């Protein structure tokens, strides 16, 4: 063990000499002072301090989670993910792709396509944008086959969704604090468990905060994921959610953990008093770390369609969202809501889920999504 302090050497012990006592009748005389030569005054000058080298700033080593996801490990893994994505989006894409079968390019095709897009919960604004963009592309390319139009629609949809394409990056802060919110049943805790596994695979140390203290099952479920992924968890039954999160961030800083993920209680955006509690959690996190939370993620259920857009707007207004996790796209015909989000509230989509398995949560790619939807 190294010490930053050097102990001072003890001063030398004084040397005592004994002289024979003087006779009792001897006269007492004051000793003669021995003249001491006074040295000439020396010029006093302050020594110049030696220049101290300023250490070079240590560059952060952020980890792009796109590199840690299974779909990018190999071409085979990526193709398996595309198969799952196509299967997951089949219900949404079926109504759109059948428009291009046995028809010709005319106003009727565009009318049918408009109806199909609206049925997929693409939303009025996004649908109008896609149709206008598609007509321009058809005119510029002089397309004559409906299948060519479908390809051009995939290009238009890709461009519309491109602003949502952003990867979660951790490592710029230590720890990176992620606050996860959403309504009941959206899949917050399960998504946190899957994300924790992907972070662990990317060699990131994770600490979970069970800030959903109102539902015992949520704490138990999160504890199962913590045990499965071999990560630490901070949990207190019946405690204030903000206090649990504060303790978790403080513990992560003390233990040098890379990421803190805080699970919060599910609530509807119309429950204003509960939304205020989320704001409180965010404020208390900032007391534990002035730069935190670094990510505020909303988990939305793809089955809810246009209601998902309403949730994005409400939570974004209250908490300033940094990203989305869209789950359960495999069980819905309303996956077009991502286009509505891109057009009206383009909060980045970090991950999409098309099943319950670990590998069914992957990073969002606009081109892959458009191709899978219209395949």
Can you lay out the helices and strands and say which pair or pack?
Blueprint: E1 63-64, H1 75-88, H2 90-97, H3 107-119, H4 124-141, H5 146-161, E2 169-170, E3 176-181, H6 188-201, E4 206-210, H7 216-229, E5 232-234, H8 241-255, E6 259-263, H9 272-288, E7 295-301, H10 306-319, E8 323-327, H11 337-344, E9 349-353, E10 361-363, H12 366-373
Parallel strand pairs: 3-6, 3-7, 4-5, 4-6, 7-8, 8-9
Antiparallel strand pairs: 1-2, 9-10
Helix pairs in contact: 1-12, 3-4, 4-5, 4-11, 5-12, 6-7, 8-9, 10-11
InterPro entries: AAA+_ATPase, P-loop_NTPase, Signal_recog_particl_SRP54_hlx, SR_rcpt_FtsY, SRP/SRP_N, SRP54_GTPase_dom, SRP54_N_sf
Pfam families: SRP54, SRP54_N
Binding site for GTP: 182-189, 263-267, 327-330
Describe the structure in your own words.
- This protein is α/β, with parallel strands linked by helices.
- It has a domain at 64-82 and 164-373: Rossmann fold.
- It has twelve helices and ten strands.
- The chain has helices at 75-88, 90-97, 107-119, 124-141, 146-161, 188-201, 216-229, 241-255, 272-288, 306-319, 337-344, 366-373, and strands at residues 63-64, 169-170, 176-181, 206-210, 232-234, 259-263, 295-301, 323-327, 349-353, 361-363.
- An eight-stranded mixed beta sheet has the order 5-4-6-3-7-8-9-10, sandwiched between helices.
- Strand 4, helix 7 (216-229) and strand 5 form a beta-alpha-beta unit.
- The longest helix is centred in the middle third of the chain and has 18 residues, at 124-141.
- It comes from Pseudaquabacterium terrae.
- Its EC number is 3.6.5.4.
- Keywords: Cell membrane, Cytoplasm, GTP-binding, Hydrolase, Membrane, Nucleotide-binding, Receptor.
- Residues 26-55 are annotated as: Disordered.
- GTP binds at residues 182-189, 263-267, 327-330.
